[in-house]
Amino acid sequence: MTVKIQPVILSGGVGSRLWPLSRANYPKQLLDLVEENSSMIQETAKRVGDSAHYLPPVIICNEEHRFTIAAQLQDIGITPSAQVLEPFGRNTAPAAAVAAHLAVQSDPETILLLLPADHYIKDIKGFTDLAQKGSQLAKEGHLITFGITPRSPETGYGYIKAGQTVGEGHKVSQFREKPDLKTAKSYLAEGGYYWNSGIFMFRADTLLKEMREYCPEIVNHAQIALQHGTHDLDFIRLDTTSFERCPSDSLDYAVMEHTQHAAVIPADIGWNDIGSWASLWDIAEKSSEGNASVGDAHLHDSQNTYAHATHRMVAAVGVKDLVIVETKDVVLVADKAQSENVKKIVQDLQKQGRSEHIAHPREYRPWGFFESIEMGEKHQVKHLCVNPGSKLSLQMHY
């Protein structure tokens, strides 16, 4: 029997490993990184857009991104059942608690499907089939995580060890932290290990029950933040003071690693978390030399390189295993094997008080966008683009 599932799309990350394209004010889930003219969050919403299987999604996002996300969803004809605004990020456990508290207001047995907004899944039908299988286990009181069938001894993901069979899945025997290469190889040799996808499913009342046992502070403050929140246009603003009291923790650490009801469903659906430039190269269409490029990029006598040009031509000769990313104000060159460490540059920029990790030269607003063309001691020239039917306030500058 088909079960209507409530998708909850989590859009709180900043994607620092995909800098300089992804920045705090316009992170990777808002960008067209995989599909042309379709952002990551649009692809995620379309993935659960089949009304025969899913209810309209709940979006939980940073309040700074609210208008952009609303506009992007409107562009693809999807109206969320709710768009909840976090005043600041508190990781996935508080977001899950808010979603569960919101769901029990209408039906305590609502089946929630928690989805990061920035993942790629190739096999959409396979994913929907797995979600239906998961919903049956969730109805019985299991907390489901989807374990990705490993393709290689990956050291960038946590692992899940499957235990005895239960329904269409397995009880979780153990969660394992990101391993070194030797340990990852041993997992694949032994079998029964899966990558932790960060996609979860459970009944709303079951999650709240487990959270009250293992992380009561989170579940209580999340409830108060929702109760004391305000409705602003189509948005639900969480109460800042209450939400600030929520400990920042992931759902894995706060609940899944402690509960006796965790189950894993193996998933071979062409999943990728698009967590780094190497991840994008991994799923991109490549030349015979293993090169992948976006924009006006020219690679000569080069191998296994990813080049992304946004404003100018990028040319490379005789290089191998590189990531080259050009934006209007930044050029990044990195060893592809070190692309996970791009976030270290972002951390350095934060310490130096710079702004390149926060915003692009083009900044988006509810009415359109603006970018500075020329800045002098006593003048500034800006390019403004106002969306049809939109307006902005009059301003005076001295």
Mean pLDDT: 92
**Percent helix range:** 25-40%
Category from helices, strands and their pairing: alpha/beta
Strand order in the sheet with the most strands: 6-9-7-8-12
Largest sheet: 5 strands, mixed, barrel
Note poorly predicted spans.
none
Q: What best-fitting shape do the alpha-carbon axes yield?
A: globular
Query: How many distinct helices?
Result: 11
**Radius of gyration, in angstroms, nearest whole number:** 22 Å
Tell how many strands the DSSP assignment holds. Answer: 22
What percent strand? 25-35%
Distance between the termini: 66 Å
What can be said about this structure in brief?
By secondary structure, the chain is an alpha/beta fold.
Description:
The protein has eleven helices and 22 strands. The longest helix has 16 residues, at 124-139. The protein is globular, with a radius of gyration of 22 Å. A hairpin with a 2-residue loop joins strand 10 and strand 11 (235-237). The mean pLDDT is 92. The N and C termini lie far apart (66 Å). The strands form five sheets. The protein has a five-stranded mixed β-barrel with strand order 6-9-7-8-12. A four-stranded mixed β-sheet has the order 14-16-18-19, covered by helices on one side. 27% of the residues lie in helices and 29% in strands. With 398 residues, it is an alpha/beta fold. Helix 3 (92-104) crosses helix 6. The chain has helices at 40-47, 66-75, 92-104, 124-139, 181-190, 204-214, 216-227, 240-244, 251-256, 277-283, 342-351, and strands at 6-11, 58-62, 82-86, 111-116, 120-121, 143-148, 159-166, 169-176, 193-203, 230-232, 235-237, 262-267, 271-272, 292-294, 297-300, 306-309, 314-317, 322-326, 331-335, 362-365, 368-375, 380-386.
